[in-house]
């Protein structure tokens, strides 16, 4: 049986998560691991039987890879992926695709150029939350048109609590130069991806992002955003890394009713008739549309998570069949939302979508060059990535 020779670049917290499923995949051989930390690389190479490389370019040159998983800090995603594309290596990249839109577009363009020589080259993204059953059920309801014309989406997701110790666990974390932002580029890419996956991109973004409001960091830890969509639908997004207990409440309102996802339950409030038609036609001043509420069954029989995304990626390479969970070009959308939120907050004004990517990149560079923030780093911080998945 042919095995896919796979490399892993980045052996930090999320890289170790990938090692957990890679070690027992029948159709995959972990051919190489790479990290700039020599002790870490040597340890995991010995643990997995893979070759150790301190420079990912050496691994690309010598390990005869078919595919690579990119799990390095965000700024390095484009350069690692582009190098792989130029060598004809398939890429599965961690979220976000890049820190800013220009880098994301450059990454996608490099992939498309590489496909001119290798049409079957694959570029996937690790948006594993698309595999979650409740999101798949919500998407199914929306695509079925059961809610009719959508009016409002409100998502309060403050379950991403992070302590100061978490931010102190790495010198690159929560800095403009090291991470390129806070909650929007680290904890929220899945939330932003899910928003655009379900509702598409807005026309306009208005937002307030609070910098270091609760933590000693130089980036945002609390955000409130307002999206305006073509056709009139509005969206609200409220996220924070400082609320405990947090809330994850997702309301989707359409003319035919309302979906509410909270506490692992999906409720469907069904209107007996369109509320838009009712408000136009009724002669009752204070009338209400008759409705009923049912809990929507969420099938929980299919596997979810990182392994599922990786298996689809590997199977498509090996068999030439099936769809990826998320394709590379889709990653630009969540970065566009993140950058647009920050640009609106910095400018204290609404910004159109697509945003002015050059303006945001210039602002980011000015924040990096003007930073005098001194980062505290703790060596004794306990980080268990399983605590952050699926919240």
TrEMBL record:
Pfam families, sorted: GFO_IDH_MocA, GFO_IDH_MocA_C3
Name under which the protein is recorded: Oxidoreductase
InterPro entries: Gfo/Idh/MocA-like_OxRdtase_N, Gfo/Idh/MocA_Oxidoreductase, GFO_IDH_MocA-like_dom, NAD(P)-bd_dom_sf
Gene3D superfamilies: Dihydrodipicolinate Reductase, domain 2, NAD(P)-binding Rossmann-like Domain
Lineage of the organism: Bacteria, Bacillati, Bacillota, Bacilli, Bacillales
Boundaries of every GFO/IDH/MocA-like oxidoreductase domain copy: 135-259
Domain Gfo/Idh/MocA-like oxidoreductase N-terminal: 4-115
């Amino acid at each position: 049986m042919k095995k896919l020779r796979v490399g892993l670049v980045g052996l930090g917290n999320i890289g170790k998560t990938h090692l957990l499923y890679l070690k027992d995949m029948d159709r995959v051989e972990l051919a190489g691991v790479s990290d700039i930390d020599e002790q870490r690389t040597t340890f995991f190479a010995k643990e997995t039987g893979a070759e150790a490389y301190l420079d990912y370019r050496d691994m690309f040159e010598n390990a005869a890879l078919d595919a690579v998983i990119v799990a390095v800090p965000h700024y390095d995603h484009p350069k690692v992926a582009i190098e792989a594309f130029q060598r004809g290596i398939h890429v599965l990249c961690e979220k976000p695709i890049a820190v800013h839109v220009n880098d994301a577009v450059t990454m996608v363009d490099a992939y498309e150029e590489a496909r001119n020589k290798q049409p079957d080259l694959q570029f996937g993204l690790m948006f594993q939350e698309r595999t979650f059953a409740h999101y798949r059920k919500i998407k199914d309801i929306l695509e079925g048109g059961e809610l009719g014309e959508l009016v409002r989406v409100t998502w309060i997701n403050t379950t991403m609590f992070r302590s100061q110790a978490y931010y102190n666990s790495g010198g690159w974390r929560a800095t403009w130069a090291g991470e390129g932002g806070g909650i929007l580029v680290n904890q929220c890419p899945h939330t932003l991806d899910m928003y655009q996956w379900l509702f598409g991109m807005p026309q306009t973004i208005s937002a307030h992002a609070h910098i270091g409001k609760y933590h000693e960091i130089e980036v945002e830890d609390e955000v409130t955003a307002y999206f305006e969509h073509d056709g009139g639908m509005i969206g609200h997004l409220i996220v924070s890394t400082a609320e405990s207990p947090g809330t994850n409440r997702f309301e989707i309102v359409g003319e035919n009713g309302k979906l509410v996802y909270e506490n692992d339950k999906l409720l469907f409030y069904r209107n007996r008739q369109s509320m838009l038609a009712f408000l136009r036609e009724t002669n009752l001043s204070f009338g209400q549309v008759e409705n009923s509420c049912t809990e929507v069954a969420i099938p929980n029989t299919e596997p979810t998570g990182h392994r599922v995304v990786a298996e689809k990626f590997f199977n498509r390479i090996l068999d030439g069949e099936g769809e990826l969970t998320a394709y590379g070009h889709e990653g630009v959308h969540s970065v566009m939302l993140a950058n647009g939120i920050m640009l609106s907050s910095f400018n204290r004004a609404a910004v159109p979508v697509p945003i002015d990517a050059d303006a945001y990149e210039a602002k980011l560079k000015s924040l990096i060059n003007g930073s005098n923030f001194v980062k505290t780093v703790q060596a004794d911080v306990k980080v268990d990535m399983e605590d952050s998945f699926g919240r």
